[in-house]
Specification:
By secondary structure, the chain is of the alpha/beta class. The protein has three domains: 2-131, 3-Layer(aba) Sandwich (Rossmann fold), CATH 3.40.50; 138-299, Dihydrodipicolinate Reductase, domain 2 (2-Layer Sandwich), CATH 3.30.360; 339-421, 2-Layer Sandwich (Alpha-Beta Plaits). Helix content is 36%, strand content 26%. Strands 7, 8, 9, 10, 11, 12, 13, 14, 15, 16, 17 and 18 form a twelve-stranded mixed beta sheet that branches. Strands 3-2-1-4-5-6 form a six-stranded parallel beta sheet, with helices on both faces. β11 and β12 form a beta hairpin. The longest helix has 18 residues, at 105-122. GO terms for molecular function: homoserine dehydrogenase activity; metal ion binding; NADP binding. Belongs to the homoserine dehydrogenase family.
């Protein structure tokens, strides 16, 4: 029976889940694969803190380099996180002839080109299933299950924290800050939630998926990124009146040789499957030219789901699957955000007087923006009312120029709000 020896660097949430699975499912993995995965060492700065699993002292070390330099270890698992010391660990592991498995989406998205180049030059393997989608095997699906497809589009709810917050806002009518506090109380959001709520975590993940889909270099610095902090309960209610839900979507698609790469709040038709994905769950829609539309759903984070993905990579490497990392060298133009086309939702705070809609629609007409639907209701003591407009497809550059002009109109009393809309035009 083939034996593969593993060292795990990082004994936090993901490391603990990985270790539990490697130990508890060792016999199951042997039975299913004919491979004996041996956990040889676990490294962490703090090995005294109680965890959900207790390890013999000889398995633990505070020195990660002990794992990296151990000639008996075949695969190094990096679940430390961050983009500094984690990179050192990975690069040195490769230089020591070891395959690597990592869950580190930030490191791969921002510096992965260098890491994959190093692995490629040494004929070593890098597993990164756990970097996107937690327990959803989306990397394997794209690399293997959909290998015969040209990828046309990917739409992902790939951050559970923001999906939980938006679900709470939608179902309970509460504002963003209240929903965030609930997420933090329940442990779904960090004390500093910036990476999640500003869309950065989703941007890291869509960077990886876009590279897999189109073979382009990892291009995190080219992702348009916008978070959910400006979404209000009022906008969620108006979206529902139009038949939409608001989700933080990570989007990449190719059209006429140009790739869109963006993360932002998006209005999605309520009858779409992806709009029904609530709470901390993730969902990734992938459209291939042969298979058509497919949707993958599950837990996008957590100790055991992510540990499951890490373990799958270990087994694949031991079996010789995906013997080389991807060569991300295809040359495509990434479309500037100003050039993308989308439908749009606008909310204006307008004075309640005749002719307001005609003034706004006049500016839209000057910028080739066509109105599809309008809602106007309510009245404030100050005489200003929300005027809500849904448009047909328009170019982002035209939209931004129109809004700049509209916000200067004397009949508009506050800064305008807009949200991009995906779905079929009515």
């Amino acid at each position: 029976m083939k034996q593969v020896r593993v060292g795990v660097i990082g004994f936090g949430t993901v490391g603990t889940g990985t270790v539990k699975i490697l130990l508890n499912q060792r016999e199951l993995i042997k039975k299913r694969t004919g491979i004996d995965v041996v956990l040889k060492k676990v490294a962490d700065k703090d090995i005294e803190r109680p965890r959900e699993i207790t390890l013999p002292k000889e398995l633990l070390t505070t020195d990660a380099w002990e794992i990296i330099k151990d000639p008996e270890i075949d695969i190094v698992v990096e679940v430390v996180g961050g983009t500094t010391v984690a990179k050192q660990f990975i690069m040195e592991a490769l230089k020591n002839g070891k395959h690597v498995v990592t869950a580190n989406k930030a490191l791969l998205a921002e510096q992965g080109n260098e890491i994959f180049k190093e692995a490629l030059s040494r004929g070593l393997k890098i597993g990164f299933e756990a970097s996107v989608g937690g327990g959803i095997p989306i990397i394997k699906i794209m690399r293997e299950g959909l290998v015969a497809n040209k990828m046309l589009a990917i739409y992902g709810i790939i951050n559970g924290t923001t999906n939980f917050i938006l679900t709470k806002m939608t179902n309970e009518g509460i504002d963003f800050q209240d929903a965030l506090r609930q997420a933090q109380t329940l442990g779904f959001a960090e004390a500093d939630p910036t990476l999640d709520i500003e869309g950065i975590d989703s941007a890291h993940k869509i960077t990886i998926l876009a590279s897999l889909a189109y073979g382009i270099p990892l291009s995190f610095d080219r992702v348009y990124c916008e978070g959910i902090t400006k979404i209000t309960a009022q906008d969620i209610a108006f979206a529902r009146e139009f038949g939409y839900k608001i989700k933080l979507l990570a989007i990449t698609k190719i059209l006429n040789g140009e790739i869109e790469l963006r993360v932002h709040p998006t209005m999605v038709p309520e009858d779409y499957l992806i709009s029904k994905v609530d709470g901390v769950f993730n969902a990734i829609y992938v459209e291939g030219d042969s298979v058509g539309s497919t949707l993958y759903y599950g837990r996008g984070a957590g100790s055991m789901p992510t540990g499951s993905a890490v373990t799958a990579d270990i087994v694949d490497i031991a079996k010789g699957v995906n013997t080389m990392p991807f060569d991300f060298s295809e040359k495509y133009k990434i479309k500037p955000m100003e050039e993308i086309e989308s439908m749009y939702y606008f909310r204006f705070t307008a004075l309640d007087r005749p002719g307001v809609l005609s003034k706004i629609s006049g500016v839209f007409g000057e910028h080739n923006i066509s109105i599809a639907s309008v809602i106007q209701k309510g009245r404030s003591k100050a005489g200003a009312v929300p005027l809500v407009i849904l448009t047909h497809k328009a170019r982002e550059k035209d939209v931004l120029e129109a809004l700049e002009k509209i916000d200067k109109l004397p009949v508009v009393s506050d800064k305008s709000v807009f949200i991009r809309v995906e779905g079929e035009e009515s």
